[in-house]
Amino acid sequence: MRTALTAATVLAAVLLAGLTGCERGSSVGTGPPPPGRPTGNGCPGVLASAEEDVRRAERTDTEWDGPADGPRAAPRKTLVYVAQTMTNPGVAGIAKGVREAAGVIGWDVRVIDGQGTPAGLQGAFGQAVALHPSGIVVGGFDPLLTSQQIAHARADHIPVVGWHAVASPGPSRSPALFTNITTRVEDVARISADWVVAQSGGSAGVVLFTDASIPFARHKSDLIAKGLAACSGVRLLTEENIPLPDTSRRTPEAVGALLARFRTAWTHSVAINDVYFADAAPALRAARHKGAGAPYNIGAGDGDPSAFQRIDSRQFQAATVPEPLQQQGWQIVDEFNRAFAGEPASGYVAPVHLTTAVNSGWATTWDPPGYRAAYRRIWGR
Questions:
Q1: pTM of the entire predicted model
Q2: Which terminus has fewer CB within 10 Å in the chain: N or C?
Q3: How far are the Cα atoms of 223, 241, 304 from residue 185, in angstroms, in the given order?
Q4: Alpha carbons 144 and 355: distance in angstroms, whole number
Q5: Is 307 helix (H, G, I), strand (E, B) or coil?
Q6: 366 and 353 in contact (C-beta within 8 Å)?
Q7: pLDDT of 29-63, one tens digit each?
């Protein structure tokens, strides 16, 4: 997902990075690698564990493990979804799920696009509060950017539910969120690193794409690097820092430089968002790389439709760790229903999933089975 800025101390650093371009396009490496591909598997125990983790995460026949009971549907509610930007496929996917679930439960939904800027988000959230809705959704941005507006919502007793709003799932006191919907970043990072270890047989040279201006993204890439380091046969060649708003402009040039620098030592890539590979593909193609060949790329991101298309067509992306966007949209509606009934948040966190060409089924999203029927039963719909 092209996530938005994702704490008050962190906020200043984020805005400063955006203004000054601090660290933009920089890379942190470990020096030039020896020529040729990495050789040898020095982590048989780690490899066996990674292979098992990958097999588990690739399953598509899982049963619904979320809430089985809760309050009946409250009547005549209105939600406002404040979107980081509707050009972000993850944010748009959540909006689609919220609208679908609200239609089932009989609520109205209005979407206000924050246009991906602090000023736009503040204006959009202010507009949302002024509408006096039953609830407001923080769709993919750091609530501290709109702390004043959230304080107004709290004063007006309007519950706020976040999606990718803070780093961890569940309720938040500061910022004040009834709950935050997201998979656990630790799980996403772990399975991304495990996939590289398993796919490479424990021998890989990896480029890690991140956005150091976003604390959540920086934390995710740090966890991925830690997971890769667990296998002595996997070498992190470099971390390439490209801010998400700059990917289309900076990624092709960065990929060309990386190919010249590392040549065949670069066998795998992990990115904190699938979008890096959309922008890397033309450069890899121009360098006469095969779409189904090295570097084998995995996105530790939302799993937007274009990522599924690249995976299924074997065009410069081999895997993604997708969020179940529509299921999370339904969960947002259910969490509001609990808030309206005076009940606590469900505490549900979707398990991590891994999509490859083997298990995608030519879908364009990860839409796990069972949740629609479960929520309908809970709501009496």
A1: 0.84
A2: C
A3: 8, 19, 17
A4: 33
A5: helix
A6: yes
A7: 333 344 344 445 679 999 999 999 999 999 999 99
